[in-house]
Amino acid sequence: MDALQLLDRDGAASSSPEEGVTVVALHEGCLRQGVGALRRTLGEALDSGTSTLVVDVSGVEHLSSVVVALLLRAKRCCRVRGGRVVLRGLGRDDLDVLHRTGLAPLFDIETTTAR
C-alpha cells in the first residue's frame, strides 16, 4: 500500500474525489521515508483548489511535530478558502497532546474507537 492514498469522502479509494474535498490516508511508510511525500501530497491537494482536507491518521502510531506543522499550514490555506482540515482516526495520545498544546480547536476532529 502506498504511504499516502487519495480517498473519496467516505474513505474508499478514488481517483475523482468530491469537488473541494480531499481525503488523504497517512501511513507509517510515509513517515519512515520522511515528510516530503506528505508535503507534496498536501501541496498538490491545496494547489488543486481543495477547501476541505480530511487527513486519516489511523495508519500512523504518533504524529510528529513536523506533521502537525504541515497540517497547520494546510489549515491556514483551507481557512482562507472557507474550508477546514479534519483529522480522522487520531489515537488517544495524539488527541491528548493536541488538547494540551491548545491545537485541538484548530482542527475538526472525527472521533473513532480508541486505538
Report on this model:
With 115 residues, this protein is an alpha/beta fold. The chain is globular, with a radius of gyration of 13 Å. The N terminus is likely disordered. The chain starts with a strand and ends in a 5-residue tail after the last strand. α2 packs parallel to α3. It has a 5-stranded mixed sheet. The protein is built from 4 helices and 5 strands; from the N terminus they run ββααβαβαβ. β3, α3 and β4 form a beta-alpha-beta unit. The longest helix is centred in the middle third of the chain and has 16 residues.
What's the SSE blueprint?
Elements: E1 4-7, E2 21-27, H1 28-32, H2 36-47, E3 52-59, H3 65-80, E4 84-88, H4 92-100, E5 108-110
Parallel strand pairs: 2-3, 3-4, 4-5
Antiparallel strand pairs: 1-2
Helix pairs in contact: 2-3
The 3D shape can be described as globular
Strand tally is 5
The low-confidence runs, each spanning 5 or more residues with pLDDT under 50, are: 1-5, 13-17
Percentage of β-strand residues:
15-25%
Sheet with most strands? 5 strands, mixed
Strand numbers in spatial order across the main sheet: 1-2-3-4-5
- The gyration radius over C-alpha positions equals 13 Å
Secondary structure category: alpha/beta
| Spatial gap, N to C terminus | 20 Å
Average the pLDDT over all residues and give the rounded result: 82
Question: What's a quick, concise take on this entry?
Answer:
With 115 residues, the protein is α/β, with parallel strands linked by helices. Helix content is 37%, strand content 23%.
